[in-house]
Amino acid sequence: MSTSQTVTVRLARNRFLLDEEESHIEIDQELCRSTGTGKRLVAVCPAGVYTEREDGTIDAEYAACLECGTCLAVAAPGALRWHYPRGGFGVAFREG
Length: 96
What we know:
The chain is of the alpha+beta class.
């Protein structure tokens, strides 16, 4: 099994409990466009949470978030508001 297959298999064992009332990721679309943050979010997120529409709008599928903080490291200040999900929600790692 290749390394990428191993990672995919291990990630599939994680459990995600979605908080349908509150997203833990909010995007300032205008700031993302003007700073190029959107393209960086799409490129670096290991979970593929971020996608870019044809019009440049960035979507976040927050239910898939691994809560690693990579997006915070590449986002321009103010372009992304991110916090850990409320207690009991989010990702539960099953493979350490």
